[in-house]
Design brief:
The protein is α/β, with parallel strands linked by helices. Helix content is 41%, strand content 22%. It has helices at residues 3-26, 67-83, 100-109, 123-127, 156-168; strands spanning 32-33, 38-40, 46-48, 56-62, 88-94, 115-118, 136-140, 145-151.
Length: 170
């Protein structure tokens, strides 16, 4: 193969891979039950997946070292503030490699109004699909089923439409 042909083939493969990743990022997950997990919150209390039932819950895996995570956090706060009185909740799960002092400082300095947990062992990330990339965000319906997963920052207009729809369900 010539150098030009090789470059063209690699470019085509890169584009195909990017499109495949794009499809993966935005595909819904159907309605699988959210994994059974126990979250230890910054205030020392615990929450389980079962505690989410009856509310629409956004579960966001993030890290203080993740620039996209930090950039999307104000939108996650706005989303929480917009829907919290209508049966919506948010749980931000810091990755196991994130120093706890950084997570506490971030949550306090940004006055995060929702629950924040630290996945000290990495087990929660494993249970939720072996999360490696942050941010990874799940939307869980009132029945405790994952209905959407985003890898990377969500499209917040689309997310709000989904939340409105899920909150309207009985």
């Amino acid at each position: 193969m010539s150098r030009k042909t090789t470059t063209t083939v690699f470019t085509a493969l890169a584009i195909a891979a990017a499109l495949g990743i794009g499809a993966f990022v935005y595909q819904g997950t159907g309605k699988a039950a959210a994994p059974e997990s126990r979250f230890v919150l910054l205030n020392g209390s615990t929450q389980t997946t079962a505690d989410m039932k009856g509310k629409v819950t956004l579960v966001n895996f993030w890290a203080t070292s993740c620039t996209t995570c930090v950039a999307e956090m104000p939108e996650i706060v706005k989303t929480y503030d917009k829907y919290k009185d209508r049966g919506y909740d948010t749980l931000a799960v810091a990755m196991h490699y994130d120093p706890p002092s950084y997570v506490v400082n971030f949550a306090q300095s940004r006055k995060l109004p929702f629950k924040v947990a630290i996945d000290n062992t990495g087990q929660i990330a494993k249970d939720w699909g072996d999360i490696q990339l942050t941010p990874t965000t799940f939307v869980v319906n009132k029945q405790g089923q994952v209905v959407k997963r985003y890898v990377g920052a969500p499209n917040f207009d689309e997310l709000h439409e989904l939340i409105d729809k899920l909150l309207a369900e009985t």
